[in-house]
């Protein structure tokens, strides 16, 4: 029985082979059985196979006769499709016409996977035009080397065209993209692979149906901060999408790229748009053949590139089978197994190298050249395709028509082929300028208004964002947030300020002295800190130290000075009286003291001089000779010593007290006193800090109260909680209460005004960010920083949650940090600021006495010198012009041998002539003559 069946099979095989060898026009014609499995809507493939059949009939030189079994596959029901295929296949075997080859033009999804499973299981030679790269054909993913020779896949042009998006993204450094496609493209398998390993945030989506739906779709994509759009579809779909887009989305910060399989021009009612247009182009050497197919064989199904691809692929597949049969490379005892006979691992082994002969076919193509992998070890499937080119044009649409189309380059199909650009300027004009929306809060020196600046603002953060923009390559618009807040959450969980703008997608970047806070990080993202840890500190009015050139005179009260002056005159007068009436004084006892070196007569003038000089280190000079005068002098010396010592001690203490530090030196000092009011800005991070610390203390109090009043505790446990003092600090609770009573300032200007208007009786201290306070102190001489920083937090740039800007900005900030650019910015805005106030150095206890407080002594010197000069002039004037000539006695020394009249007298310093006689005069002063008699004493 087995021998009979084998003989029957052999006879059937011989009969089939006999049918192949029939005569057509005197030539040998090969009959080829084809299973053509196509999707329902794939009209280009159906039309192409139909034309191939007609083409072979009209061109007998090919020696081919086709017997095609057509199967249309639905897209959803795999079971029904497999039953249909198996039924048709079983019938072909029964009719002794099994397929030589399966031509599979299913695209993807259920039909493609079903066909791949069928052909792989039964070992049927297959040429597939399904979409997908290596690994996308799941049923052919792990086939062995033998099956790789007859299960072949060629990527269709519609599967290669989306690869141009990758080339454009790389060429133009696009960071975000929306890729929209219609039914003419299949992108399911490209969601992950298209822009793999490229740092581009992208969305791939099917174009919505209906104008309203398309408009909403574009709006949703724009809310994702996407401004680069790729439209892959027919010209009709492209026109509909462009008409659904708002005019504002065609400005300079948007870029539009339209990619199609069609070869016509864009038609849209768009009024004003400039976009990049890519369409396939036929190689010049193939235009004649393509024109013949279109005119003679009516190969006009659109899109043309896909129809011609299916034609070339089908023709090449059929010629491959013919060549193999003619070369005796086709097995003569091909075994065909039915679907019901397949047990999972009993696939027939084929000694068939379909790939080798498929590569060798020399038939010219009609559109593009086949690029088939022939290298050993490199997969054929997923890397073999048709090579074609696409024109890249810059198209301007005005008034609904394409008024200007300028070619700027070409792209050759491939899996990773770069763009060939011949006009770099034009393609740069098609690049979307990346413009981010920045919201900020004014706070010097981070953000300050400046009408002369390019963006209208200047400051540390403006310089920082400009440095980042130079690295990341973007532009930005900056705007102040309406409420002037960085962002706080209310009791209902709603945010305000910059945080709200980021949450609502109205802002891309939150810029300024924005502290990193845990609750903010729940709804937004922060970059790495760009500024060191910054805490809260205290700002108060700088105490003004009164200064006076004659401050040394204020050490003693006025009545003391008057008493000293009275004592001076009284002592001087008393010394003159004692010297005048004492018989032992010099003026009353000249003969006794005539041999002494010091002869001082204490008249009133000398007494005044003696008392004055006695108060100086130089001393008063020769003391009186009489004992009574010396007792007065000694008393005056003792008085002077005590006065000078008291004055010196009080002057040092007086100047020291005036330079004492402010009584508040820390937050604890501020909390312990009640004289000085204090508060942070309303809605600031400092306010949030004190409010939360107070709430935490309240929570701790409630916990302690529950513990201490817990009735379930044993007496021993209760005794462990019995303390006289309250164990939980209420420092911040009291401070928060004091702040609320003091009323929180609404803005920084109000806080500064309250600090400046404060007095010793009604003081006010402002609590705020240390950077802001340091800048205010630097630019205002009447303000000062008090105490150390506390609650330190870093400053960072805020972005939307999940934004790609976070990673880009992180890299940029770290780059700037490594280059020490951030340190240079700090130097610029905190040390070398042009508006930095030139303040006098505040006096310290370790400093000396300033010239403002001791300069009066120099004035005293200058006044004394001035008075001496005036006195000198007066003396000279008095002597020369106002004083009468002094008459002196003269004795004539008559010359010997001469006679003449002796003049009675002459004026001092003059020579008189009387008559013709000139006499030599000997002058003698009157007071140089001692009296002839000794004067009588007064007593």
UniProtKB/TrEMBL annotation:
Gene3D superfamilies: 1.10.287.70, 3.40.50.2300, Periplasmic binding protein-like II (3.40.190.10). SMART domains: Lig_chan-Glu_bd (SM00918), PBPe (SM00079). The chain crosses the membrane at residues 559-578, 634-657, 854-878. Residues 445-504 form the Ionotropic glutamate receptor L-glutamate and glycine-binding domain. Pfam families: Lig_chan, Lig_chan-Glu_bd. The record marks 664 as: Crucial to convey clamshell closure to channel opening. It comes from the Eukaryota. L-glutamate binds at residues 515, 520, 685, 769. InterPro entries: Glu/Gly-bd, Iono_Glu_rcpt_met, Ionotropic_Glu_rcpt, Iontro_rcpt_C. Residues 435-832 form the Ionotropic glutamate receptor C-terminal domain. Residues 1-26 form the signal peptide. GO terms for cellular component: plasma membrane. It is a multi-pass membrane protein. Disulfide bonds join 86-339, 781-839. Keywords: Cell membrane, Disulfide bond, Glycoprotein, Ion channel, Ion transport, Ligand-gated ion channel, Membrane, Receptor, Signal, Transmembrane, Transmembrane helix, Transport. One of its GO terms (molecular function) is signaling receptor activity. It is found in: Cell membrane. Belongs to the glutamate-gated ion channel (TC 1.A.10.1) family. This is Ionotropic receptor 25a. It comes from Glossina fuscipes. The gene is LOC119633996.
């Amino acid at each position: 029985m087995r021998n009979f069946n084998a003989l029957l099979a052999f006879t059937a095989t011989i009969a089939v082979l006999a049918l192949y060898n029939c005569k057509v026009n005197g030539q040998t014609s090969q009959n080829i059985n084809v299973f053509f499995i196509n999707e329902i809507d794939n009209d280009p493939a159906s039309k192409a196979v139909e034309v191939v059949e007609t083409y072979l009939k009209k061109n007998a030189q090919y020696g081919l006769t086709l017997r095609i079994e057509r199967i249309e596959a639905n897209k959803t029901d795999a079971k029904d499709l497999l039953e249909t295929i198996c039924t048709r296949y079983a019938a072909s075997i029964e009719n002794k016409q099994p397929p030589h080859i399966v031509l599979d033009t299913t695209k993807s999804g259920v039909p493609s996977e079903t066909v791949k499973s069928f052909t792989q299981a039964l070992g049927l030679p297959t040429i597939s035009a399904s979409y997908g790269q290596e690994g996308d054909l799941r049923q052919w993913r792990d086939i062995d080397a033998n099956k790789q020779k007859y299960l072949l896949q060629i990527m269709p042009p519609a599967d290669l065209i989306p690869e141009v998006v990758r080339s454009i993204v790389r060429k133009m450094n696009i960071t975000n993209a929306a890729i929209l496609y219609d039914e003419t493209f299949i992108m399911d398998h490209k969601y992950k692979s298209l822009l793999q390993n490229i740092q581009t945030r992208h969305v791939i989506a099917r174009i919505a149906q209906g104008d309203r739906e398309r408009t909403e779709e574009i709006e949703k994509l724009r809310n994702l901060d996407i401004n680069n759009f790729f439209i892959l579809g027919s010209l009709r779909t492209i026109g509909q999408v462009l008409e659904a887009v708002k005019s504002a989305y065609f400005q300079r910060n948007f870029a539009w790229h339209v990619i199609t399989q069609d070869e016509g021009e864009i038609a849209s009612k768009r009024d004003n748009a400039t976009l990049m247009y890519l369409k396939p182009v036929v190689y010049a050497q193939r235009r004649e053949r393509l024109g013949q197919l279109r005119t003679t064989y009516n190969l006009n199904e659109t899109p043309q590139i896909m129809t011609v691809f299916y034609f070339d692929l089908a023709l090449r597949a059929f010629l491959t089978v013919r060549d193999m049969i003619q070369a005796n490379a086709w097995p003569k005892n091909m075994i065909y197994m039915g679907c019901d006979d397949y047990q999972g691992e009993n696939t027939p082994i084929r000694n068939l190298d379909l790939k080798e002969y498929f590569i060798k076919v020399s038939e010219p193509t009609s559109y593009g050249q086949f690029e088939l992998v022939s290298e050993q070890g490199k997969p054929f499937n997923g890397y073999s395709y048709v090579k074609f080119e696409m024109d890249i044009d810059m198209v301007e649409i005005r008034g609904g028509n394409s008024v200007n189309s300028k070619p700027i380059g070409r792209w050759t199909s491939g899996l990773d082929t770069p763009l060939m650009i011949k006009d770099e300027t034009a393609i740069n004009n098609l690049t979307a300028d990346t413009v981010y929306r920045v919201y900020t809060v004014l706070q010097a020196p981070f953000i300050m208004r400046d009408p002369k600046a390019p963006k209208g603002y200047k400051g540390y953060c403006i310089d920082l964002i400009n440095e980042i923009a130079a690295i990341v390559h973007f532009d930005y618009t900056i705007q102040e947030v309406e409420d002037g807040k960085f962002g706080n959450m209310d009791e209902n969980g709603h945010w305000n300020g910059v945080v709200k703008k980021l949450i609502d997608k109205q802002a891309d970047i939150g810029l300024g002295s924005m502290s990193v806070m845990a609750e903010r990080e729940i709804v937004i993202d922060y970059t790495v800190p760009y500024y060191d840890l910054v805490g809260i500190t205290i700002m108060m009015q700088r105490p003004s130290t009164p200064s006076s050139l004659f401050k040394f005179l204020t050490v003693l009260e006025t009545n003391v000075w008057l008493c000293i002056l009275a004592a001076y005159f009284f002592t001087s007068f008393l010394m003159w009286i004692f010297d005048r009436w004492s018989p032992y004084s010099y003026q009353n006892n000249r003969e006794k003291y005539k041999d002494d070196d010091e002869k001082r007569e204490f008249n009133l003038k000398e007494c005044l001089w003696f008392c004055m000089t006695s108060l100086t280190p130089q001393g008063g000079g020769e003391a009186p000779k009489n004992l009574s005068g010396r007792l007065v002098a000694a008393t005056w010396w003792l008085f002077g010593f005590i006065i000078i010592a008291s004055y010196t001690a009080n002057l040092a203490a007086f100047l020291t007290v005036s330079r004492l530090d402010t009584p508040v030196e820390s937050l604890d000092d501020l909390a312990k006193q009640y004289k000085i009011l204090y508060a942070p800005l309303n809605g600031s991070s400092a306010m949030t800090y004190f409010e939360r610390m107070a709430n935490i203390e309240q929570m701790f109090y409630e916990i302690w109260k529950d513990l201490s009043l817990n009735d379930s505790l044993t007496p021993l446990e209760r005794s462990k909680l019995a303390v006289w003092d309250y164990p939980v600090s209420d420092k911040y609770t009291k401070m928060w209460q004091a702040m609320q009573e003091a009323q929180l300032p609404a803005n920084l200007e109000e806080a500064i005004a309250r600090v400046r208007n404060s007095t010793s009786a009604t003081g006010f201290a402002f609590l705020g960010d240390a950077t802001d306070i340091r800048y205010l102190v630097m630019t205002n001489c009447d303000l000062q920083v008090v105490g150390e920083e506390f609650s330190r937090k870093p400053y960072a740039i805020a972005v939307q949650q999940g934004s790609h800007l976070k990673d880009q900005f992180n890299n940029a900030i770290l780059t700037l940090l490594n280059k020490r650019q951030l340190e240079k910015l700090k130097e610029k805005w905190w040390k070398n600021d042009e508006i930095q106030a030139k303040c006098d150095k505040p006096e310290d206890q370790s400093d000396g006495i300033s010239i403002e407080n001791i300069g009066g002594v120099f004035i005293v010197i200058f006044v004394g010198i001035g008075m001496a000069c005036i006195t000198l002039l007066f003396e000279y004037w008095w002597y020369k012009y106002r004083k009468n000539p002094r008459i002196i006695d003269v004795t004539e020394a008559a010359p010997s041998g001469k006679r003449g009249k002796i003049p009675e007298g002459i004026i001092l310093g003059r020579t008189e002539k009387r008559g013709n006689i000139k006499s030599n005069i000997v002058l003698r002063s009157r007071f140089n003559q001692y009296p002839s008699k000794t004067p009588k004493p007064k007593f």
